[in-house]
Design a protein that fits this description.
mainly beta; Immunoglobulin-like; four-stranded antiparallel β-sheet; globular
């Protein structure tokens, strides 16, 4: 009368669960559904509808939909002056690119960043960025006010659906210290 009781955790089930967990842990959350094509990391110029003749990425454009800042130099060195613009230029593609959440996390150098007059200083910001599938997207920072210019390391992280897609550290310095065209890491 004693029949064999089947163990709910037999080897086949355990192997299947282990493979599922390993796949989920190894690959970023967005990799199968959203691809990120990174076009540029560095300094950017003015927004333009059409790329200028000397543009390093003439095929990356939003025309006829709008404008993106034009890439200038692949570098992690940023001049500490008004109008300096730095960050990432990329395109999202894939079956779930349309609904992807894009966040830019910035870690500021001491004493921290103040988002406005009489606002407390913060060490980190995390902002959701508006990006569209299959179109170039710029996320980054541009110095609009003198009090925004903090010399030192600005660490930026690009997150897609909460998973890291790219990160780099920009060094904001007075212009005499900016002597090389180093590619960011």
């Amino acid at each position: 009368m004693g029949g064999r009781v089947q163990n709910p955790f037999d080897r086949r089930r355990l192997l299947g669960i282990a493979m599922l967990l390993a796949t989920a842990c190894v690959s970023p959350a967005f990799s199968q559904d959203v691809a990120v094509e990174m076009h540029w990391i560095g300094l950017f110029g003015a927004y333009a509808r059409h790329p200028p003749p000397d543009d390093p990425l003439p095929d990356v454009t939003l025309f006829p939909f709008g404008e993106i800042p034009r890439p200038l130099i692949r570098t992690n060195k940023v001049p500490a002056k008004l109008g300096s613009r730095f960050g990432f230029l990329f395109t999202l593609s894939g079956p779930k690119a349309r609904s992807a959440e894009v966040h830019l996390v910035i870690h500021y150098p001491p004493p921290g960043f103040s988002p406005g007059v009489d606002k407390p200083r913060v060490q980190t910001t995390d902002d959701r960025m508006p990006c569209f599938a299959e179109l170039p997207c710029y996320v980054g920072y541009s110095f609009q006010r003198k009090d925004e210019i903090l010399t030192g390391e600005w660490h930026m992280e690009l997150l897609i659906n909460g998973a890291p897609a790219e990160e780099t550290t920009f060094v904001v310095a007075e212009e005499p210290q900016l002597v090389s065209n180093d590619a960011p890491r």
